[in-house]
Amino acid sequence: MNPNEHIHLSHSAQLAPPINRGSMVAQPWTSFTQGLALMKESIREPKLRLTPPWLKIAMERRRVLMALVALTTATVAYLWIANQNNWDFWPLKVIQLTVFLVLTAWLAAGFFTAIMGFLVELFADGFALSSRQVAKLSLSEHSKTAVIMPICNESVDTVFAGLRATCESLMQRSEAKQFDVFILSDSFDPVILAAELNAWSTLRDELQGRVNLFYRVRQRRTRRKAGNVADFCRRWGKNYQYMVVFDADSVMSGEALVTLAKLMDQHPSAGIIQTVPQPCGVDTLHARVQQFAARVSGRLFTKGMLYWQLGESHYWGHNAIIRIEPFMRHCALADLPGNGGLSGHIMSHDFVEAAMMRRAGFDVWLVTDIEGSYEQQPANLPEELQRDRRWCQGNIKNIRLSAEPGFAMVHRFMLLTGVLAYASSPLWLLLIVTSTFIYSLEYFLGHSVSDDLLINHYSDLWLVTLVLLFLPRILSFFVILYKKEQQQYGGLHNLSKSILLEALYSAMVAPLRMMAHTYYGLGLEWKSPLRESKTLPWKATYLYFMPYLWPIALLCLVTVLIAPSTLIWLLPVVIPVFLATPFAVITSSSYVGLWLRVRNLFITPEEASAPAVMQQAWYYSGRYTKLNRLLRWLRQPKASSGATAYHLR
Q1: How do residues 621-644 score in pLDDT, each as one tens digit?
Q2: Can you give the pLDDT at residue 342?
C-alpha cells in the first residue's frame, strides 16, 4: 500500500482541519514579445499608484542610484580608454571594455547599496517599515495566522527540533491560540514518512493543544514548494488572514511571529512582509565564515536594499508573512509555455510572487529590525555551489517574465539582476580569458607587457576596483564599533582578524563560484539540501571540482607557451581552483570550525549569546551533545568561557 494512503486512512481525523476549499487559479503569461509591445502601458501603470508617500521617495532614491552607477561606470570607461597605449586587436579590446564596464556597474550597484545601508545604520530611515511601529500595540483578536512548513524528504530531527522550539516560544505568548502550525509534506520515502508521522504525533501530544499542529502529506507532488503552498491555500487558506512561510531549516521566535501579524494588521496595504533571517547553527568552517559575513557586512546590503526599494522589496520565499486572500487571487503561478529549459514550472517562485503581489496593488516590505528569525547555511562549499546553480537556473527562466504587463519597474529590474547575479561569473571568466589573450599577443609581438607596467599603467582602475570591493567591509567594521557591538563578535582584536580572514576566504571562494555559475546546468539536481555537518570525502570532492580544473589548466598552458610572464596575473584564479579539493574538504570540517570558534574567530551574536529559541532548537536536535563531544576532543581551556552557548544544557 502507498504509505501516503496508509497515513490518511489511519489518521485522517487528526492530521488536519476540515477542508474549506478556495480558488487559486493561475492565469496564462503574456508572451515576451507581446509584453514588450505592451511595455508602454506597463511602465505607465505604477504612475497611477503614486498615493503612498514612500513610493515617490523610492522613485527619487532609485534615480539617484542609477545616476551614481552611471557616473562610476562612465568614470571607469574614461580611465580605461585614457590608459590605452594602442588599439591593436581592437575587437578584443572592445569586448574587454564592454565586459569590464558591465561588471563595474554591477559592483557599483552593490557598493552604493552598502553605502546607503551604512547611512541607515547610523541615522535610520523614517520611511521604512519597522517593528518599533507596533511594539506597544496588541494583535487584533480577529487575526488568524497559519505557520506553514513545506518539507520534502528532509532530516526529520532537524525539522521537528526547530518546529518544536518555535511552537514552545509561541506558547509563551498570549496570542498563541491565534496561530496554527502546518507541516506540509511532499516526502515520498516511506521511512521518512513514517518518521515524520511519529515526530508529528509526539510533538502534538507535547503541545497539549496550546498550539494547533497539523500534518498533511500531498498526494500529487506538483510544482515543488510553490505547488505545496498553493495546495495549502486551496484547502485551508480561507480560514486565515495571513500565513508565515517556513523553510525546513527555519526557526522563529513567538515574538517575531506576533510582530509580523501585528504589522499586517496595522498596514492593510501590505501583501508580503519579509524578515531578514540570520544564519546560525552550523559549525563547519565554511558555514561559520558565511554566518559571520552575513552578520557583519550583510546588514549593510539588506538595509541598503530596503532604502532603494521600500514597499517594492524582495520576497525570499521563507521567514516571511503573506496576506492570503490577495495571494490566492493574484499569485497563482502558471507554467511557462513552450519546450526546453526555459519553459515549464517556475522554479525561483519568490521573486515572481512578489512582483505579482505588487502588480495587484499590495506592498512588499523588507523589515530589517525584527529579531528572532533564523535559518541555516549550507555546511560545505559544494552544497552551497549546488544551491547557487539551482537558483541560477530558476532565475534564468524568470527572465521571460521581465516584460510581463503590470509589473513594477523595480521588480522587472530584480528579475533581470537575478540573472546578472550569476551571469557576472561567466562574464568575469570571459574578461580573464580575453585580457590574458590580449596581453599574450602583445607580449608575443614584442610589445612591452611588464608587471610594473600593468600595475602602474592601470593604478587608478585598480584603486577604483579595490574601493568598490572592500570599502563595504570597512564600513561594516565601523558600524559595529559605533554601536559598541564588538563584544558580540569576540572583541575588537578578534573581530578585526575575522574580517581580514573572511576577505581572504572570499578571495579563495570567488573563482570557484565563477566556475560553478559558468557550469550552472552541469549535473544539476533539485533536491533537499543536506542538513547534517559531515566532512566531505576526498575522492567525491575531487570529482566534483574536476570540471573546473581542466579549463583553467588549459588557460595556464596556453599562457605559458605564449607569454609566461603574464601567468602571474592568473594566479588569483589558478591557485583557488587548483586547491579546491583540499580547501573544500578542510572547510567542511566541524573540528576546524570549532577550533577557530574556541579562539573567538568568526564569532556571531548568536554564538556569543544564543537566543532562547535557538537554544531550544539545538537542544532538541542533539546539537549540544555533538558540540560538547567535539569541544572535549579539542581540549581547549577557553571552551568553557568562549563557547558558553554550547553549555547551556
Answers
A1: 888 777 777 777 765 544 333 444
A2: 82
> Which H, E and C letters describe 246-271, residue by residue?
CCCCCEECHHHHHHHHHHHHHCCCEE
Give the span between the Cα atoms of 73 and 103, in whole angstroms.
9
- The amino acid at 31: S
Query: Which residue do the cell numbers 516590505 mark?
Result: 365
Q: In what order do the strands lie in the sheet with 363-366?
A: 212-217, 179-185, 145-151, 242-245, 320-323, 270-274, 363-366
DSSP conformational letter for 49: G
Contact 603, 490 (CB under 8 A): yes
What is the edge-to-edge ordering of all strands in the sheet holding 373-375? 251-252, 373-375, 278-279
The C-alpha angle with vertex 199 and arms to 194 and 203, in degrees rounded to 5, equals 150
Cβ atoms of 252 and 374 within 8 Å: the answer is: yes
Confidence check: pLDDT of 9 > 70: no
Residue 409 CA from chain centroid, whole number: 22
CA-closest candidate to residue 365, choices 325, 408, 320, 327: 320
pLDDT of residue 1: 37
Assign residue 310 a region (left: φ > 0; alpha: ψ between -120 and 50; beta: otherwise).
left
Average predicted confidence (pLDDT) for the chain: 88
In this structure, the dihedral spanned by the alpha carbons of residues 99, 100, 106 and 108, taken in order and rounded to 10 degrees, is: -160
Contacts of 208 (CB under 8 A, 6+ apart): none
Handedness of CA 623, 626, 629, 630 (dihedral sign): negative
Complete DSSP assignment for 330-398: H---PPBPSSSTTSBS-SSHHHHHHHHHHHTT-EEEE------EEE---SSHHHHHHHHHHHHHHHHHH
Q: Please name which of 233, 231, 246 lies closest in space to residue 186, comparing C-alpha atoms.
A: 231
CA dist 215 and 211 (Å) reads 13
SS3 278: strand
Over residues 464-498, the pLDDT tens digits come to 999 999 999 999 999 999 999 999 999 999 999 99
Q: In the chain, what are the domains? A: 3-29+135-384 (3.90.550.10)
Read off the pLDDT of residues 395-453 as tens digits, 9 standing for 90 and up. Answer: 989 999 999 998 999 999 999 998 888 888 889 999 998 988 887 777 777 665 555 55
Whole-Å CA distances, 624 to 377, 587, 611, 643: 18, 21, 14, 11
User: 266 is written with which cell numbers?
Assistant: 496595522
Residue type, 560: V
Spatial CB neighbours of 159, under 8 Å, sequence gap ≥ 6: 149, 151, 183, 196, 199, 248, 249
pLDDT score of 204 more than 60: yes
pLDDT at 94: 92
* Cβ atoms 475, 114 nearer than 8 A: yes
pLDDT of the residue at 220: 87
Q: How do beta strands 179-185 and 212-217 pair? A: parallel
* CB 62 within 8 Å of CB 410: yes
CB 103 within 8 A of CB 425: no
Which residue from 603, 277, 306, 298 is spatially nearest to 472, judged by alpha carbons? 298
| Residue 220 DSSP code | S
Confidence of residue 462 (pLDDT cuts 50, 70, 90): confident
Q: Which helix (H) or strand (E) holds 217?
A: strand 212-217
Q: What pLDDT, on a 0 to 100 scale, did the predictor assign at position 236?
A: 97
